[in-house]
Amino acid sequence: MAISKNDIIEATIRCTSRLGLPAVTMSTIGKEVGILAQGLYNHFDSKDAILKSCFDSCNRQLAGQFAGVTINPEDDLQTSLKKLWMRYFLFFVNHPGECCFYRQYRELAVAPPPKETEDMTFYSDPAFQHLWNLIDALDEKYGLFASVPKNMMVYYVRNITPYLARSFSDDIIPDTPENREYMWKLVSRGFSNLWNQ
Description:
The protein is an all-alpha fold. It is 63% helix and 0% strand. Helix 1 crosses helix 5 and helix 4 packs across helix 7. The protein is elongated and about 55 Å long. It starts with a helix and ends with a helix. The relative contact order is 0.12.
């Protein structure tokens, strides 16, 4: 059976979930996908290239959660933000392997905190353009970024959300409507703290 790039990406995410990203090697990926490690080089130049492709795959899947989503003009700011954030959160809850990979890759690979004066190049994945348009619409309507730069808020959400989702995917607490609401309260308190600085 022919091995595809996607097979390698999925195998790498499974290895990360089981072993932790620092323990993932070309050999472990090859064994997981069912080929010798050397065969991986027919598809990728290096382990770093595989990991970057896994991260890009996670981002594309995340961005897909917002395809076709619109802002309800009758919703207030908190309701609009909650609906957007909950889609983001539930992706990680429902994809524990991707949640584990995404969290560890961001911790170990890149992701320095953005400076307030930086533009959004750190968040420039074109797959997220629809989400950015939704956030810009909220900014235009409510002055969302009057006191907090967009990149700081996005950095906060991208860092905290996989950790909160982990508490469900790792069975630390049960996934119930009440606990989902509690998770939103934790995040929205953080928003309030950012805006009240």
